[in-house]
Amino acid sequence: MLPNHFPDPHLFLPGHGEPQLRWGVIGVGWIAKEFVPAVRDHTAQQIVAVAATSLERASRFAAEHGIGQAFDSVDQLVALPEVDVVYVATPQSAHLEVGLAAIAAGKHVLIEKPLALTAAEATLLVDAARAAGVFLMEAMWSRYLPQASVIRTLIADGALGEIHSVVADHGQAIPDYPNHRLHRPELGGGALLDIGIYPLQFDSMVLGAPRGIVAVGAMTGSGVDAYSSIILSHEGVAQSTITTSILTHTPNTASISGTAGRIELDPFFFTPTTFRLYEAEIFGASMEWSDPTGIASFAALSWEATALATYVGEGRSESPLHTLAETVSILATIDEVRSQLER
């Protein structure tokens, strides 16, 4: 039987007691160009500095987004006393180096997904942050969306019963082979780290770490994973099917199925979207949830920024919705999948 109504989402709304942190942004690629206006327009946070590989690029970005200071050096930005938190938006191949520099400077750090290229690299970042006493978080924005809050509550309340299946898919046709960064191993390319991490984190949110991993797929001629189909076994009789690709645009949907019902998320399931809750019966009733906030597309990157400020204000060292241990665990799953594809 369906509930009478959906639970209210927990929203990371600005101006609810979180500190106004001063942010420095490192990297001026497309994700930084989405993150900065999202933070400016939908949070109480303040972006005060930016760094890029050249002063020209940094200065142009600063002028476009109303940022006061621009640098061509990571060390210069992280040394600024007026920067409280650093957002790392570089290619993932630089996440470890830049993240360690920010941590060593005593800054809180938000690193774009993936946190690092491997679980071992991520562990280095985690250990450094804990030793320095600073906050560290992977920028897995999907975890902080209103829909994720509603889904977690439905699961906790038993609306789905015992969960037996998670199916999630993310595939994009990435052009410009072999020059695009996702086709370049030296930049941490491949489907798994940049695209496949979304369905894998979704599965982890619902069922936790897998106890068994079986993967099939192929590598590109440039040496990165092109596509994969992954079967994850979990405790009890739960099993997940994850697919990812940089060769084709796939449905980009997800579902969670249990003994009492199922949830189906529309494309793109890892962004603000609509989902339906179905009864367990094959022709059972359903009800639809839509995001009530009006914050759509990449403007929703703002939720994770306010979440970070909230957690820092609470004196936390990591996100309770996406812990550092889970972040490392997901990368360990990716490590194992990639090793199977490379055999």
Describe the structure.
With 343 residues, this protein is α/β, with parallel strands linked by helices. It folds into two domains: 22-142, NAD(P)-binding Rossmann-like Domain (Rossmann fold), CATH 3.40.50.720; 145-293 and 321-342, Dihydrodipicolinate Reductase, domain 2, CATH 3.30.360. The protein is 33% helix and 23% strand. It is built from nine helices and 14 strands. It has helices spanning 30-42, 55-65, 74-78, 95-104, 119-132, 146-156, 191-207, 302-313, 324-342, and strands spanning 22-26, 46-51, 69-71, 85-88, 108-112, 136-139, 163-171, 212-219, 225-233, 239-245, 254-258, 261-265, 275-279, 286-289. The strands form two sheets. It has an eight-stranded mixed beta sheet with strand order 8-9-10-7-11-12-13-14, covered by helices on one side. The chain has a six-stranded parallel beta sheet with strand order 3-2-1-4-5-6, sandwiched between helices. A hairpin with a 5-residue loop joins strand 9 and strand 10 (239-245). Helix 7 (191-207) packs across helix 9 (324-342). The mean pLDDT is 97.
